[in-house]
Amino acid sequence: MLELYLAFPFHLTQPQFAFESSNGVIHPITDQLPGSNTDAYAMQHWAAAWDQQAGVTWCSQEAPIVEFGGLWPGYVSQAHHGVTPPGYGHEFLRHPDQFEHGHLYSYLMVNNFRTNFEPFQVADVLFRYSLTTHPGGGRPAEATRFGWGTAAPLEPVFVHGPQPGPYPAAASFCALDQPNIQLLTLKAAEDGDGAVLRLAEMEGRDTLVTVNLPYLEIERATRLNLVEEDDGPELPAQPHSVQVTMPAYGLATVRLRGLHRWPTLDWLARL
Predict the structure, then answer these.
(1) pTM strictly above 0.70
(2) In CATH, what number is assigned to the domain containing residue 179?
(3) Poorest-confidence range of 114-118, 128-132, 204-208?
(4) Same domain (yes/no): 119, 206
(5) How far apart (Å, rounded) are the C-alpha atoms in residues 12 and 16?
């Protein structure tokens, strides 16, 4: 049996861990049902480890499975018919204090699962990682910005020579005034009626956020559900901004309507 890991042995005392799930943040064991799997976790854009003195945010672009605190050789379904060494398997962890080391292990590949997976490697594989450090304590908002920036970096577009138009040399089409709110999308509405914002709260606290859109003239803003159907009253809106109340770890989808068709919707539709 082959299990291949890459170790990141961070020197932390009484470490704590967290990782980004689907539009949320999970603290291993603390946020799990007792007896559920604690061997490995599938993260979205980042994982983090910290103690009272320092912390690290860790991003893996090709290998989203991570183990915290140590290597935990877990169980294999009988349907997989893999061969395991003697003593393979252990009890799942029950308390965060059982994470004695601030180590992260990137789970690269394994050949013990033979139901739907190739049991051998047939080519070279590239794995890329990005890391940043910070003072002690968990910082999910900062980790989210770093993780999303690593996974989807800005793409430069070059413009040759002077260009006519009202835009300054540098500007933001969309800015949020709360660091714990993540912009998931800004796009043309599926039915062509205005633009749609989707936001997520990442720190677990109710937040009133102001979204500034200096190049869109907003007449009305309405809350939507995830399939872009009207789902609430109109929101407080100014000509170039809208206020949205975000629940802890919640999502918000907002339709923005203008006084006329916005020229910028053409490029929004191409995002």
Answers:
(1) yes
(2) 2.60.40.1180
(3) 114-118
(4) no
(5) 9
